[in-house]
Amino acid sequence: MSIRFHPSLQLVAKVRIALKFLYEYKFKFICTNFLGDRGRKEQFYSEFILSRVHLLSLPDAVERNIASIVRALAMEVAEWYRIHKDLLPDADLDYWGTICWYSHGTIDYLATARAFLLDKHLSRRQRFVLSCQYYLEDDVHVLWGQMTAFDLSCIAGSTGLTGNFRYWMEALHSNTRLNWIRISREASISNNYCRTGFPKHFFSGNLLGLVHYFPKLRIAEARFRCLYRAILKESIRPFYLYLCLAQIPDHEVEAMFNRFPEGHRYQLFVSFLHWPLQSVFLSIIERFRHRISNRMYVDLFEFILFDKFERGLFDYEYVSLVKQLWALLPENTKSF
User: Fold this and answer.
1) How many Å is the maximal CA-CA distance in the chain?
2) What distances in angstroms separate CA 308 from CA 131, 183, 209, 282, one per listed residue?
3) In terms of pTM, does the model score above 0.85?
4) Beta strands per DSSP E along the chain
């Protein structure tokens, strides 16, 4: 996809400021995304964060923007923890020193996984499973020599490796690399279908290392099924969906989009309304406007209204975005 996300220097600077405020909170609390132990406290902490940012004595709009970025980063941490909590060491739940960030304010999952492999609290089983999940083949082969039969028996029943354990075992027992040509072929023609009519097989419960293995899928059909499954389960973070789309040519993205059902198209558009991709949302709309129904436009406006405005989120200039989106609409859509 030729559309590219380029974070501005201003955004990068604001992220650095926002991270300093985020680190004032205990990691255990941030994992709740400001819900707290006794229910929803988002509004209370939103006001508290804004009061802390106010100490910077910046223009009001900038302060609201930075405070909302703090909330966006907290949401990023909460989602990362939800996905990884079963793979993490049984330590004191303070991972601030281990989590790695992109400069634009999303967690670098792969770099963070590599950092956790160096954590002394991680058991050898946890290291092995984490390496497998992220397709860190060199680490997997090294750790393989440390595994006992009992370890493998326990791991074989792990829900986190059911989709790809067979491929790993075949490669490890033969001391070879994963055969991505074969994996791509089987993922493209597998008859192991889920109720939606698309196969789950390799991609079922196997999306954690998606960005790392996506470029290794040699067949377009395998890439389509991979993203179909990821969007269906809403198991791919917006920035990582963007990274996958950015690795394939426009004609393939167009073909994917034409095959996606309405719900998938909507989820794809919504991904570009999430932090930090809002700046390319209108470009995505322009690119695929011929496949957007009137109903979908209404749904997108409702998403901005309820998920952004009503929650008081100012991590982007949503008023300006709505005006520009409205200007793009054909007259028959405006009267829908």
Assistant:
1) 67
2) 37, 40, 29, 16
3) yes
4) none
* Cα angle 139-141-146, degrees, rounded to a multiple of 5: 95
Write the burial class of residue 66 (CB in 10 Å: 0-12 exposed, 13-18 middle, 19+ buried).
buried
- Is the alpha carbon torsion for 159, 161, 164, 165 positive or negative? negative
Distance CA 305, CA 254 (A): 28
Q: Is the dihedral of CA 260, 256, 233, 290 positive or negative?
A: negative
Residue 229's nearest CA partner among 254, 252, 249, 210 is 210
pLDDT at 104 over 90: yes
Q: Nearest Cα to 141, choosing from 178, 110, 113? A: 178
Mean pLDDT, residues 216-226 taken together: 91
Q: Which amino acid is residue 144, in one-letter code?
A: W
Q: 172-181 long-range contacts, Cβ below 8 Å, gap at least 24? A: 172/140, 172/141, 172/144, 175/141, 177/137, 178/135, 178/137, 180/213, 180/216, 180/217, 180/218, 181/218
Q: How many CA atoms lie within 13 A of 333 on its CB side?
A: 18
Mean predicted confidence (pLDDT) in 231-251? 91
Instruction: Select the more confidently predicted residue: 28 or 276.
Output: 276
Each residue's pLDDT tens digit, 325-335: 998 887 877 77
Task: Report helix, strand or coil for 89.
Answer: coil
pLDDT digits (tens, 9 = 90+) for 53-80: 888 888 999 999 999 999 999 999 999 9
Banded pLDDT at 45 (limits 50, 70, 90): confident
Distances (CA, A) of 151 to 137, 183, 282: 18, 25, 50
Ramachandran area for residue 64 (φ above 0: left; ψ -120 to 50: alpha; else beta):
alpha
Residue type, 186: E
Cis (ω within 30 of 0) for the bond into 238?
no
CA angle 313, 297, 62 (to 5 degrees): 20
Tokens of 133: 């999940």
User: Is-contact 231 264, C-beta < 8 A?
Assistant: yes
Over 90: is that where the pLDDT of 187 sits?
A: no
Task: Count CB atoms within 10 A of the CB of residue 265.
Answer: 18
